[in-house]
Amino acid sequence: MSLVCLLYALVALQGFIVILHFTGKGYIISLIFELTFLSFRVLISFSQSAFRWVLPPRKSLHGELALVTGAASGIGRLISLRLAEKGCRLVIWDVNQEGLDAVAKEIKTAGGEVHSYKCNLRDKNEIHETATRVKEDVGEVSLLVNNAGIVSGKKFMDCTDEEISATFDVNSLAHFWTIREFLPNMLHRKHGHIVSLASIAGKTGLAGAVDYCSSKFAAVGLMEALRQELSSIGSTGIQLTTVCPSLITTGMFEGVKFRFPHLLGFGVLTPEYAASKVVDAIENNQTILIMPRGAYFSTALQHILPVDATDLLLKFLGADVAMNSFIGRQRNTPKM
């Protein structure tokens, strides 16, 4: 009841501000009231966020048509399996046909519905053609999970032009092309969810992974700017979730080592844990998911401390040489 009264009071206050504005009187008073109103709204937002953190509301994913890229192995495979368990109809993409067939078999054996498509995410035209086939064969995607990712593991001057292009094609540009394929129908229906598997490397630079970090920063920027744009045009019913995990033991960053990895959230995550948290974030309409939890603190810390202090901490953790022992996967295919 008290919250309702507060909301009525805020509406009345806003009306008073509008009157002051149009009469051209009391500009300073109007500004004070406007700032007061803004403060109340921010306070309410904090309260609502705290409530959702304590008792997160879960939406049902049953019946959603979910598309997962890079689904033939690793976390993409596990996310696909968990979404199938939640009652989603699955569309899975990858360049690895053999892996796709294996995952599709797992989902079908468990009683789920799945449609697999071989797709090279480096090719914009192939993305368009495959998306068109999905719409014709299965229907409009309502849950898009951009999971596929690659890493060269080379220092900046050692990366070839082709390796840099490939990294951005898969880790960043493919997100643009898939979103542009499926967002229009989401906007029309006022219903949809877009997920980007970015990285903690999209929040903090890492020596020896300049191309990878840059592509992940781009993915994070895309999701944040798109969220703001959808809000500015008054779009409702479409959720965006950006996922920034630390190292996941899928083999993608095999050999990379930090000193005291758990100290500031650079701990190694199991694929099972990461996939579970991603699906939880989707169900909870979580805007940003950073894993492990300690990484929230470390990413915030770098915006507070002086640059030199941040560099000293990263060196202490061994981040400056962590990529020197990089091995990675034997095949640099668009999987994660």
Explained architecture:
By secondary structure, the chain is an alpha/beta fold. Helix content is 51%, strand content 11%. It has a seven-stranded parallel β-sheet, sandwiched between helices. Strand 1, helix 3 and strand 2 form a beta-alpha-beta unit. Helix 1 packs antiparallel against helix 2 and helix 5 packs parallel to helix 6. The longest helix has 29 residues. The protein is globular. The termini are far apart.
Task: Quickly describe the structure.
Keywords: Oxidoreductase. This protein has 336 residues and is α/β, with parallel strands linked by helices.
Instruction: Output the helix-strand order.
Output: HHEHEHEHEHEHEHEHH
Low-confidence stretches: 331-336
Number of helices: 10
General form: globular
* Arrangement of strands in the largest sheet: 3-2-1-4-5-6-7
Strand composition percent? 5-15%
Mean pLDDT metric: 86
The biggest sheet, with number of strands, parallel, antiparallel or mixed sense and barrel status, is: 7 strands, parallel
What does the radius of gyration come to? 22 Å
Q: Percentage of helical residues?
A: 40-55%
The N- to C-terminal Cα distance equals 48 Å
Q: What structural category do the secondary elements indicate?
A: alpha/beta
| Total strand segments | 7
InterPro entries: KR_dom, NAD(P)-bd_dom_sf, Sc_DH/Rdtase_CS, SDR_fam
Family: Belongs to the short-chain dehydrogenases/reductases (SDR) family.
Protein name: Ketoreductase domain-containing protein
Domain Ketoreductase: 64-244
